[in-house]
Fold each of these.
Amino acid sequence: MPPRDRILMEYFDGELSSGATDDVRRLLEPGDERLLAEWTQIGDVVRAIAEPGDGESCDVAGRLMEKIHAEVAPDRPVTHALYLGRFPWRRIARAFAPLAAFGAAAAVALTALSMRPDSAPANRAGRASSEPDIARVASVLRPASPPSASANDDELSQSGAAIEQLDLGAAEGVLFVVATDHDEMPVVWLSEGSASL
Amino acid sequence: MKRRTVALLVAISLASVVARAENAPGKAPQKEPAHAAPNLNFGVEVVVLQATNREGGIDPRIGHMPELGKPPFSAFKTYTLLERVRLPLALGAPRTFVLPNGRSLRTILIDALPNDTVRFSASIDRPDGKVFLPLLEVKAKVGQSFVVAGQRHDGGTLVLVIRVVS
């Protein structure tokens, strides 16, 4: 990691002395400010995923979707139909990989609602109208740091399973990727909020 | 020798010559398929975990699963192994497994691809037969896995780790 990025991360995490903090603050450039703002957004999302509620059962999906609704699309519902074959979630997952360096998990969150089981083709046809919403979610979740130059698409294609299509029906849920040092694992986290046995 | 017999012998000789010409060293060999033939002996291993915030830690029977130490999985204090089953994947033959919460996980092979890769679908039905999770279509190699989590069960959350096996 370049020394500048490391210092910026230490500054972001509040790990610098007060003198060093002042120095960094004075030397911040516009690009650094953007990076810090995006780290803050990512941190909010990761915390939304990671922090359990008071109850025994942790409604990760619900809290994450609330977060996305609040930050991304206050005026419009977030994606209702999601066909993942064309969505670059792998690229986003790769972009999240640097987060592991400072102790956060890689996570991409998207939401999907209400695709009738018997109307998948219609929803696929209609996904174009959904994509701007997906893009907006992605833009919030995408960190500024570019992916590692060594990570190419071939490596990524070998690194984990690919969820190509997801229909959550009447349920709600989120799709994200958890990355470890050696693998990426897609996770569909369903919300039981509106569903029961 | 009758004329018909002579004709037959000529035909056999011609066939032999043609066959030898096909196998001649100068003849370009037939192209091998780009990939090995797909392995049709696939299955999925379903590891059913229950996540809770009770004290207990990670059940050692789960084995090595570093993802459980990452958010959002790390939000739970305890992971208990409830079941571990293998379901064969076959074209046109869905396999069903009843989850601890009474719902049914159904898997079916869509396509066996080269390089130990499969495309299959999973869905979850409620006990009354209605669909809970209509469709999850996955492409994965042997050894790769994905997770379906979030269903409530017995004061905790079910985490289904689904891994392709051969």
Amino acid sequence: MKNLFLYRLYTHSRAAFIFIVVFVTCYAIVFYKKMDMTLFPYNSMYTIDFNNKNTARTYGVRINGELIKFTHRPYWKKDFLETSLNGYSNYLNHGEKVFLEDYLSAKFPIGTIRTAMLMNLTPVKNTLYLWPLWFAQFAGYKVTPGAIVEIFQYNFSFDRTVANLVDSSSIYKFAVK
Amino acid sequence: METANDNKTLNKIRIIFFIALVEYFLFIFSGSSFSFLQGDNFFSIEVDPLSWGFYLAGMPQFILKHQWCGILIDSIIIISLLLFVRDPLNNRLAILLFLLLMLFYITFMGHMAHRNYQVGFFMVFVPFLFKGYTNKIFAYESLRYFLLFFYLSAAFLKITNHSLAGNEHFSHLLSGQFTPYFLEGNTGVRTDLNLYLISHPATSHLLFIISFIVELTTIIGFFTKRFDNLLAIALLTFHFGNWLIMDIAPFGQVAFICLLFISREMTKKKPNSF
């Protein structure tokens, strides 16, 4: 009993003991509700096979038809370019809304709280249509006025030895002024 | 003799934070630290009070609007990390680094529109936030349980979600890991391995079970600290294997896992140099 961590902590500092008990309780609730938070991570990575087949979807930005390539970049830059493009494409595919817009609208029906939270917790919409330009520049590409910027969705299927590009479709297109 | 051991412990801690320094340099050298994200106006965060706090205060938005601010914070982080490697018992530096790296983590993940698992990136400083030696030890022990639970919960969720039952589970999941590489035609050994594992579900399932076993073995750490070195090696191997097979690099989590290498030293009686 005297060797138990919580007992030793209790004898050392009541405040620290209470903090740990509250932290563990919060973690247990969050974990039970299957929520994933920075301080209470729900590490369910690769436990659920949502797709249930050997197919995959990815996105690519093209400038005047030329695909922006980034997989040769060092890890964090490559990861940021890949994942943020997926995030932006999901935003486009969901009626130009991020997840929190739906969540806050459902949880906070009162207008003023919702408006205040939406203002800071979601991106400002009026310049978001230009995000692919930032993406291109971040990836090291120059975009000149008059260039056509397009985001494509690509579907892949995998058979025994090859990755097959099954189809692609343009989900967003604009000309740079 | 005791002083020699104390110095050895301090040097081990210094190595861990040198790894943390290298991990932050990887953000800078790859061109994705605060200084380089300037002008990114798209972000998407989840239901996470910690992220909400920073975004409600407008901190990530302000930093990414003003490049001077990003460069300043990057510089402060690097200088503080260098000083901290020299003096890892300085709790003021630990507090500063904990807050700045937490801010960076929240900003990076928010603007990436996806929360990665590398919380160890700033959590590694938790034991060193406190001035008193005993407080450091208790904070270290708490953090150690947090780390162990992080991996053990992954094994637990694989059981409750019946992930181990279907032998094509991992082969399906691997399908999405290298698609940008295939799209760009940037293929090589890793994409060949990816295709091999997709087309050989039994082999990929075996790897999945091995990763499950590694995660499950962290349960030992709840009962004894004797095998912490082995657990750390197993977890690091698991993460670097993930990088090879799934293109998920462990940078940001390496220093955090390395804390397991000092568990024996962190439970001894107070050393002279602390």
